[in-house]
Amino acid sequence: MKNPAILLVVLFVCQITTSQNYKFGKISKEELQEKFNPLDSSATATYLYKYRKTFFEYNQNTGFELITEVHERVKIYNQEGFDYATKAISLYKSSSSQEKVTALKAYTYNLTDGKIEDTKLKKNGVFKTEKSRYRNETKFTMPNIKPGAIVEYKYRVTSPFYQNIDEFQFQHAIPIKKLEAEFQTPEYYNFKVNMKGFLPITPKTEKRRDNITFRNKTRSGGEGSVNPITTTTYSSSNLEFTKSVSTYNLENIPALKEEPYVNNIDNYRSSVKYELSYVKLPDTPIKYYSTTWEDVVETIYKSSNFGTELKKSGYYEDDIDALISTVSDPEIRMALIFNFVKSKVKWNEYYGKYTNDGVKKAYKEQVGNVAEINLMLTSMLRYAGLNANPVLVSTRDNGIPIFPTREGYNYVISCVELPTGKVLLDATNKYSSPNILPYRALNWEGRIIKKSGTSSLISLYPNENSKTTTLMLVNLSEDGSIEGSRRSVKTNHSALSYRNRYNNSDENDFLEKLENKYDGLEISDFKVNNLVELTKPIIEIYKFAIDNQADIIGDKIYFSPLFFLKSKENPFKLEKREFPVDFGYPSTSLSRVTINLPEGYKVESLPKVEAFALPENFGLFKYNISYNESTIQLVIETRINSSIIPSFHYDTLKAYFNKLIEKENEQIVLTKK
C-alpha cells in the first residue's frame, strides 16, 4: 500500500499543475505563497514554467531565418536562489551576421499585504556586451527581488545561422514543474535527432502544411515608353510546403545537481540536439552536412581554415632549418620544435578547431588561437620529417562528442608517432610537456586525422600516474601546537597544475590561500624550485607552525599523525550516482611523516597498520606506522590508477573513501612517562 503522506503530496502537486495558468502575467497567489518545492525541499528556486519554440520563418530579403521564442517563470524561495533573477542570453555572431534579441518583456512579482505587486524590468536594466569575436551577450537582472518572489520573462531570438540549433535542455540545476518545447522545420531542412540523459523523453511528431507568400512589385511606363506615366503593379504568389513539428510536454522534472569529479554535467543532462543533415531548397542541388564521423572529418579536413592552413610551411622553414639542422634524433627534434612554438606564439585564449586569422599571421604577430598554434606545430613537425597529425578534441567544457556532429569538437592538438609510441602535444600552455595535456583537453578520446583524410580514435588520458611525494618533519609540543618543515615533490599533471596556479598568481596571494586552506597555518621560508624547468619535478619547501593540532585530556595527548593534512570529509555523499567518476588523470600520493614527541611523553597506542584496495586495480591505500622512544614514523600511500571509474563501482568507491578518511583520522595516544 502506498504511503498516504506521499500520495497526498503527489495529488497536491498534480492539482496545482493542472489548474495553473501559464499565460504571461497570469501569476497566482498560490504560486507566490509557496515556501518550498513540494517534491524537492532543498531547491533554492524552481522553474514553474519553461517554454521554448524554435522554428523557421521566411524573410523575403534574406531567406529563411531561425526564430526562437522563450517564456520562463521562476519561483525564488530564498536568498540562495537570487541568482535565478539574472538571465544571460548568449548570441552567436560572425564577421557579417549576428543573432538578435527582440520583444523582451519581464516582470518581478511579490505578494505585498495580500496583494500581487508587479515590477517591470526597465530598459536601463538590460545590458548588451561583446563577450568575444564570436559571441555577444544580452543580460538582465530582475528588479525588486525578495525571498518568495516570482520572475517572469519572454523574448525572441532571430538567427541567420539556421544550421546551428541550440540544444533543447530538459534538466537544470533546479526542478522544473512544467516544460513545453516545440521544434518546427520545413521540408527543405533535414535534421538528425540526438538524445542524451536519463529522463524518458518521447516527442509528439506530426506533419503540417504551411505556405510562403512572395510579394512582387513591378514598375511600367515612364520616360522612353509609350505611356509617360510610371505605374506600379503589386502581385503575390504562394508556395506551399510541409513542415515537421516535434513537441515536448514534461512535468515535475527533478534537478540535475552538480557532483564532485564529473567532467561536465552537461554530458548527463537530459536534452535533445538537432543536427543538420542536408538542405534541399527548391530548384537547387542538395547540400549534405555531417551524418557520420567520416563526413565530419572530411568536412573539417577540407576546410580552408584547417587542411589548407596545415599545408603552409614557407613562413617558418628558415627558422626550423636553423633549429634542427644539427639534430637527427626524432625525439629531440620533436622537443625542440614543441618548445620553440610554445615560446614563439602566445595563446589568445580562443578555442577552435579552425584558424581565425591564419597560421602565417599568428606566427608573425606571435599570438593565435588553439588551431593556429597546434596546426602550426603539426606542420613544423611534418616538415622536420616526423609522422605528425592533428587530433580533434572536445574540451571538458564542451562535453563528450557522443554523436557525429561538427560542433562535437572545438579544439585541436598534435600527435607524433615515434618508435616508442604516440606522443600528444598541446603548445597553447607553456608549462605543458609531451603527453601532459592541459586539464581542459583531458576528455575521453580525440580523433586523429591522417594525411589521407581518414581518422582513428586515441585516448587523451595519460597512462602514467602523476605523483606527489610529501616529506614532513613535525615537532609536537605538549600544548598541542606543532611546528616543522614540509617538502613536496610533484610530477606530470600535478606539476603542471601547480605551475599554472603559482606562476599565474601573486606569491603573497598564493601563500594566503595555502594558509587559509589549512586554517591557521603560518608559513615561513617558502621556496619553489623548477618552476620553468619542465623536465624536472616541482619542489615546494616551507616551514610551518600551527596551534590546536592535538587534544590534551588529563595527562594524555590525542592527535592524528597527519595533523592538518588529513582528509576531513568524503567527497561522495549521494546515495546513488548515475555518472562515472572522472578524476581527470591517474595519481599517486605518498606522505612520509616524522613526529618528534614532546619531552616526557611516550606512545600509549597507535593505529593499526592497514592496506585496502579498489576492485580492478582502480586504486589502493596503504597505512604503515611505527615508533621508537622519541619519534613516530608514518608512511601513507594513496593511488587512483584510473582516470575514470564507472558508476556501477560508486558504492565501492564511496566505501573506500569512507574507510580512507576514517583511517587518516585515527588517533595516536601519548601519555606521560
Description:
With 673 residues, this protein is α+β, with helices and mostly antiparallel strands. It has 3 domains: 22-210 and 242-279, Immunoglobulin-like (Sandwich); 294-459, Roll (C8orf32 fold), CATH 3.10.620; 466-672, Jelly Rolls, CATH 2.60.120.1130. It is built from 11 helices and 36 strands. The strands form 8 sheets. It has an 8-stranded mixed sheet. A hairpin with a 2-residue loop joins strand 4 and strand 5. The chain is globular, with a radius of gyration of 31 Å. The chain starts with a helix and ends with a strand. The model is unreliable at 1-18 (pLDDT under 50).
Any chance you could write out the topology, listing elements then pairs?
Elements: H1 4-19, H2 29-33, E1 45-59, E2 63-76, E3 86-92, E4 100-112, E5 115-120, E6 126-130, E7 135-141, E8 150-159, E9 168-169, E10 176-186, E11 189-196, E12 204-220, E13 231-253, E14 271-279, E15 287-288, H3 293-302, H4 307-311, H5 317-324, H6 330-344, E16 346-347, H7 359-365, E17 367-368, H8 370-383, E18 387-393, E19 411-418, E20 421-425, E21 445-449, E22 455-459, E23 466-476, E24 482-490, H9 492-503, H10 507-517, E25 522-529, E26 538-546, E27 551-553, E28 556-559, E29 581-582, E30 587-596, E31 601-605, E32 610-613, E33 619-627, E34 631-640, E35 644-645, H11 650-664, E36 668-672
Parallel strand pairs: 1-10, 16-17, 23-30
Antiparallel strand pairs: 1-2, 2-8, 3-7, 4-5, 4-8, 6-7, 9-14, 10-13, 11-14, 12-13, 14-15, 18-19, 18-21, 19-20, 21-22, 23-24, 24-26, 25-26, 27-28, 28-36, 29-35, 30-34, 31-36, 32-33, 33-34
